[in-house]
Structure formats: structure tokens, C-alpha cells
């Protein structure tokens, strides 16, 4: 039964690959029938669990409530999407975001819930580092806007260079990953090679310092909470 539950959870999550917009699109009828089958299996598993559990215990368990709500939301969204499709009205399958609930809340997923709780407990402790990183990113974006925005520079595609603050924030955020390096620097570098110092300072502070610090804080806090949970706390 555990293997069957995991199989249908995996099948349900895999539908995102075949539903519009999809990598390998399949007809709506096919994906909807598979999803209904998965939901019936989930409902049957929940019904079986209710039969072997005291009623007051079953209804007090938030995991069971979450599964029932996820099933209802998925069926409602499936019906609405199908009706709108009949009348050629485009819509979005918003219930996809509830599918991981099945992976987390079934009784067989105890280890996944432990990992999820560790992540949840870690989030408040990394907030300060994240806020510092965002502050640094916003300040560097403001400096870039003042340094380059008034010089009428253009990118290689002929677009304005660092003229819009939000676009500047996004470009420098991508630069943290070095995905747009050194392209994002070249218009300023062509204007004056000294401007390269701005981008070098940005990469050193945000990519090498903040990202390393962020990773260290996440790892240490996650490991700490995971040790506490495996040390004897009740994870259910």
C-alpha cells in the first residue's frame, strides 16, 4: 500500500509535464482521467485510514484535513477548467500548487515531513541574512542607476542601459549568479574601464560573501533542527 501511494503521488505530480502549458502535451481528457484516478486512490487511502483510526483522532489530525481539502480543490479546479475548455475559454490550472500536499501529508511521508519542518523552522533564522542581501542588492542597483543611467549608454541590442530601477535590480540579481557576466558590464566598461571596479565590488560582496554566508546559515540551521527532530521529538 505504501508503494502504491507513492506511485500515484508521483503520477499526480508528473501530470504537470503533460498538461498545458506542457513539455509533452497530452489531450485534456487523458490527463484529467489520470488525475481523477489519482484522487480516487488518495480518497480510498484516506477512507481506509479513517476506518482503522478513532473518529476524534482522525478529525483532529491536520494532515487528513489537508488531504481532503486538496482533493476537493483539485476536483473543483478540474471541473471548472473542463467547462471553460468546452466554451473555448482559456484558464489556468491553479490547483497544481496543492499537489505537493499529498506528498507531505500522507502517513507514509514521515521523513519528508521532518525535512519540511526543518526547512520551515530554518526560514525565520535566515531572514536577517536575506534582508541584508536584498538591502545590498537594492543599494548597488541605486548606485548603478545613478552612475550609468544619466550617460545614455546602450546595450548591444540597442536598448537603454540601466535606465529603469526595477530592470537594474533584476539585471544585478542575475549577475549574482554570474549568468549574465560579463555582458551586463560591457556597455559601462566600453565607456570607461574604471567602471569595471563597480561590478567587481558587486560580485565580491554579493556573490562571494553574501551567498557563502547565506549558504552557511541555511546549512547550519537546517542541520541543527534536523538533529533536534531525530533526537527524540515527536515529528507527527
From TrEMBL:
InterPro entries: Ion_trans_dom (IPR005821). It holds the Pfam family Ion_trans. SUPFAM superfamilies: Voltage-gated potassium channels. The chain crosses the membrane at residues 26-44, 65-87, 126-145, 165-182, 194-219. Gene3D superfamilies: 1.10.287.70. It comes from the Eukaryota. It is found in: Membrane. The keyword Coiled coil does not apply. GO terms for cellular component: membrane. Residues 1-16 form the signal peptide. One of its GO terms (molecular function) is monoatomic ion channel activity. Residues 6-224 form the Ion transport domain. It is a multi-pass membrane protein. Its main location: membrane. Keywords: Membrane, Signal, Transmembrane, Transmembrane helix. This is Two pore calcium channel protein 2. It comes from Aptenodytes patagonicus (King penguin).
